[in-house]
Design brief:
The protein is an alpha/beta fold and 215 residues long. It has two domains: 116 residues, Rossmann fold; 72 residues, putative n-type atp pyrophosphatase, domain 2 (Alpha-Beta Complex), CATH 3.90.1490. It contains six helices and nine strands.
């Protein structure tokens, strides 16, 4: 049955593919929820500016809600955003997680708290197959953050291709980056009406994370 859905949208490849899968299953996207670190002003993990999120929102054609939060209030503020989406007609929330049980449980708990269903279109699928599907479906994803404890930062700024994905796997890191080895920005693909224009800043280090600021 077709349902209206809001997406937990990091800006990365997995959440973009999850949205695409949901749309292909005849569900209707009504909005995006993106969380922002209230201390830094950029999105958690993926480092998007709010201006960039507005551009993504316009290209996808749905509203995007930038939710500023601290880590301590993250769950509560996410639930508040879900409740708002429900008021606007959302019946389920789509997540891009693949197979980490704790992530699934967290999403389900947030949704249950406000009376929404939780949908995981990528759940338990082969990670290599998912990365290849993202690339082969026409998504353009740029690597913007790397955990240097798990992956060499020479991949920073690279567009994700089959060749790059295989090189990441050959380094001993997860090909999908599911353990936080790397994060991406999805800037084009089948959910976008037009490519997203963005600029990458100079590399910065935050603890052991190598980051290219995105704006």
């Amino acid at each position: 049955m077709s349902k209206k859905f809001v997406a937990s949208f990091s800006g990365g490849k997995d959440s973009a593919l999850a949205i695409y899968r949901a749309i292909l299953a005849s569900h209707e996207l009504v909005g995006l929820i993106t969380t922002y670190d209230s201390d830094t002003g950029v999105s958690w993990s993926h480092g998007m500016s709010k201006a960039l999120l507005e551009c993504i929102s316009a290209s996808i054609g749905v509203p995007a809600w930038a939710i500023e939060t601290t880590s301590a209030e993250y769950a509560k503020n996410f639930e508040d955003a879900l409740a708002h989406a429900k008021e606007l007609g959302a019946e389920v929330c789509v997540f891009g997680d693949t197979d980490i049980e704790g992530h699934q449980h967290w999403g389900e708990q947030r949704c249950q708290a406000v009376g929404l269903g939780a949908l995981f279109p990528l759940w338990k699928e082969n990670r290599r197959d998912l990365v290849y599907e993202i690339i082969d479906s026409g998504f353009v994803a740029t690597i913007t953050t790397i955990d240097t404890k798990q992956l060499d930062d020479r991949f920073l700024g690279k567009q994700l291709t089959r060749e790059i994905a295989d090189q990441i796997a050959a380094e001993g890191a997860d090909i999908c980056g599911e353990n936080g080895e790397y994060h991406t920005l999805a800037s084009d693909g089948p959910i976008f009406k037009h490519p997203i224009k963005f600029e990458l800043g100079e590399k910065m280090m935050r603890d052991y994370y190598a980051i290219l600021p995105v704006q």
